[in-house]
Design goal:
78 residues; alpha+beta; four-stranded mixed beta sheet; 4 strands
Length: 78
C-alpha cells in the first residue's frame, strides 16, 4: 500500500487562490507531504463552490487541477 499525504490550505478567497505564486522549491522540501492543495470559496457569480490548485513538485508535477474529488470529504466537515 502506498500512503500519500497532502497539506491542505484554505485561503480566504478564490482571488487569493488564483493570485498565489507557489514556491515550488519550498514545497518540494516540505517533509511529510507529497504536495499541497490550496482552496478558497468561489465568488457567488462564478457558478462554482470553490477554486483550488494542487502542487506536487516532489513527483515532477508542478501543478495539476484534477483533485476536486479528494476535497469533498474535507469540505463536508468544514
Amino acid at each position: 500500500m502506498i500512503l500519500v499525504s497532502f497539506f491542505k490550505v484554505v485561503l480566504p478567497s478564490a482571488k487569493a487562490v488564483t493570485d498565489l505564486q507557489p514556491q515550488l522549491d519550498a514545497i518540494r522540501q516540505c517533509p511529510g507531504s507529497s504536495g499541497v492543495i490550496i482552496t478558497g470559496i468561489a465568488p457567488p457569480e462564478s457558478g462554482y463552490d470553490l477554486y483550488s490548485r494542487f502542487f506536487c513538485p516532489k513527483h515532477g508535477i508542478d501543478e495539476v487541477s484534477s483533485l476536486h474529488c479528494s476535497l469533498s470529504k474535507f469540505l463536508s466537515s468544514a
